[in-house]
Amino acid sequence: xxxxxxxxxxILAQYPRQAQHLINLMQDVQAEFSYISSEHLALICDxxxxxxxxxxxxxxxxxxxxxxxxxxxxxxxCLGTTCHLKGGERLVEACERELGIPRGQTTGDLHLSLDTxxxxxxxxxxxxxxxxxxxxxxxxxxxLKKRLEEL
Amino acid sequence: xxxxxxAAELKALQDYLVxxxxxxxxxxxxxxxxxxxxxxxxxxxxxxxxxxxxxxxxVKVQPLIKETGCHGFxxxxxxxxxxxxxxxxxxxxPEDVDEVVQTTLVTGQVVDRLLYSDNGNRYKxxxxxxxxxxxxKTILKNVGVIDPLDxxxxxxxxxxxxxAKALTGMSPDDVIRTVTVSGLRGRGGGGxxxxxxxxxxxxxxxxxxxPVYIIANGEExxxxxxxxxxxxxxDPHAVIEGMALGAYAMGANLGFLYVRHEYPIAIRHLATAVxxxxxxxxxxxxxxxxxxxxxLQLNRGAGAYVCGEETAIIASxxxxxxxPVTRPPYPAQQGLWGRPTVINNVETWANIRHIxxxxxxxYTGVGVPHSTGTKIFSLVGKVKNTGLVEVPMGISLGxxxxxxxxxxxxxxxxxxxxxxxxxxxxxxxxxxxxxxxALKPARVGLQTIESLPEKPELSVDFDSMAKxxxxxxxxxxxxxxxxxxxxxxxxYFLRFLQEDSCGKCMPxxxxxxxxxxxxxxxxxxxxxxxxxxxxxxxxxxxxxxxxCGLGRSAPNPVLTSIxxxxxxxxxHIVDHKCPAGVCRDLISYRIDPVVCTGCALCVPTCPPQCxxxxxxxxHTIDQDTCIxxxxxxxxCPVAAVVVD
Lengths: 151, 644
Description:
The complex is a heterodimer. Chain A is α+β, with helices and mostly antiparallel strands. Chain A has 7 helices and 4 strands; from the N terminus they run H-H-H-H-E-H-H-E-E-E-H. Chain A has helices at 8-13, 22-33, 38-48, 52-61, 81-85, 88-99, 141-150, and strands at residues 73-78, 112-117, 129-131, 134-136. Chain A has a 4-stranded mixed sheet, covered by helices on one side. In chain A, helix 2 runs antiparallel to helix 3 and helix 6 (88-99) runs parallel beside helix 7. In chain B, 39% of the residues lie in helices and 15% in strands. In chain B, strand 5 (116-118) and strand 6 (121-123) form a beta hairpin. Chains A and B meet through helix 2, helix 4, helix 5 and helix 6 of A and helix 2, strand 13, strand 20, helix 17 and helix 23 of B.
């Protein structure tokens, strides 16, 4: 989470008022604020002229949107095919035990979010865990635990 | 940057760039592909920059450090090549950089310990390494060579010359005819003839005048595949030029790059490349002074596997939920905003420039009839040399996995390959059950391996793969050994697809749920042999009844695994055993008392605290409380934990 947010109005101003920009706009807001609040969702809908239900449907259909605030750090365990074969599922379970939250959730203090991803495309180094923007390749329960403790 | 007014200026720019390059200037290329990045390539590149900038390097010509796309040989990352000495250093760490700079760049010597070695042989250059030697790089030729953030580097390597050739010397119809005759088929998985699709869009636009749109499908959702990522990150201009050629052929003025959001580097590189191409007048109005207008818009996918399906992409681009719709009408008839739209995979677009440059005849000479050209595979899983490989179509599976991949590491047995992601299948390596028409008599396609013994092997091309019940797919090739369970993998894919089914049509929504229930039971040792038949029949219902490609191909992993590995299903159901030792309800962890040294390292790490014993004596696991998480197996320094 960044200290100062870009103004929501500034993000809106970058896009023409057309429905085709709805998803791009939502992605920018998601990236900036780490989630889309109901106020922001309403502002986006007003800007591109679509009903709130459509934006809501999109926010809940696509995996990259969150309607709840996300943690400061994001731990994403890859569950692509190769990572699955090499024990990715056990890594997620280890994270759940260590962090005390189920996958898809954020710790109460908004410090950490735990997620799984379908494939980050680093299959040659499976299993892979992404901590924020860093890749932890050829992860095992020992190296993962160490990495989590560093956060 | 000055706009290029015509094709001659583009050629002059290329000539100037080639001439201005000092052939003696050392170039260090640091791979920033997905694999190397995960191994810390950024730190290696940074270390090179710092070392070079340090004063008093004592060389006549300052070396050039290039951060490039994927070199391919991911299991040996971080990869660094040095030109013109043509050296390939593997497993380079930031702390090795000073030695490379001092030894190779300053004194011109080789750092032997960083060369790739295998079976006692050391290999100096990429060309000598068997993993590279057996490949035929066409699409990937510039990936890992050029700086993807510098259009001049791409132009120096010949980018946009095909576009110039088409604009100045070919009619749109010539371009379509060339692509059609080349036999190029869609690289995203379906294998639909590209030229035919283009022709349809043009015909439809003539009947119903108005704009035509083109889209590059970069929603590479198949887990285990990253070839499109490598192209977009390593040579974004290949995609842009291919699309510009397509746009010229079909009379489109606007194209869309639809890239999944999990690929932020690809998005950044494409955005930069599009802007640089615009600045040079290779995109935008009046391209190369030939009166052709074309521009590209970059859209990020929002995390939905189904958005690899073409009608779902269109929905997503229109700002709607990515639900597929029934075809026909096909996008080439009624696509984006109701207009004829052509959607091709990133790798398909990257083929176009080569077909235009070298001609359809050259292209049909590569590969096999009906599957022409090369194909990029991501060779991953239980194979020694993992990475990205480009080979001619029709190569044998054995060449791909054993000669290029180096076989399965350790003492384990090669069991199967999974191709085509969740829409593909699981094909056994033992070929006794594969239909004979999909086999080829000997390893062909590469002269270097003629001496190998002749044995029938699966030919890797669109039609042969389809005959096995799998598909070629995007090019993910996941190698499985005897410690991988096919029931578990089939269950994994069903769960994957069930989560990503959009839920619009019933066969897919409920069918996947039903199939998953069968497999959940099997993995717990429950069920009857008759359930296997029921599962097959339910799978067939999905194939016949689903609305889009996701549902229709979803049963493939299950159906192929039953076809080739029924014994393994029966072992789960009848014997209540998982032969591979994967399915958790059917296995147990045990400490081998002969091997265990009693170091007690596992005791505090065990989550349910179920390991006990006295110090320096063999320990034991309490089977009643063990949750089979495997932490003890990972941490044991002497490999005393075994799975039964």
